[in-house]
Design brief:
By secondary structure, this protein is of the alpha+beta class. It has a domain of about 30 residues. It is about 25% helix and about 25% strand. The protein has a three-stranded antiparallel β-sheet with strand order 1-3-2, covered by helices on one side. A hairpin with a 5-residue loop joins strand 2 and strand 3. The radius of gyration is 11 Å and the shape is flat.
Length: about 55
């Protein structure tokens, strides 16, 4: 199992949004090609960039 350091780059992201993002990442299949940067959109279409180190 890979261990990822996940940094939420958008500082306006609330704790609840962060939790949702982490849950989404956890649910990704292990074969999913994780890029260095994922960009997700929340309900308000705010861009949330996640750096995976």
């Amino acid at each position: 199992m890979h261990e990822y350091h996940i940094e939420i780059m958008n500082f306006k992201v609330s704790h609840n949004q962060s939790t949702i993002i982490l849950e989404l990442l956890v649910k990704l299949p292990t074969s999913f090609p994780l890029e260095d940067m994922l960009t997700l959109f929340d309900k308000n279409n705010d861009i949330i960039s996640i750096e995976i180190k």
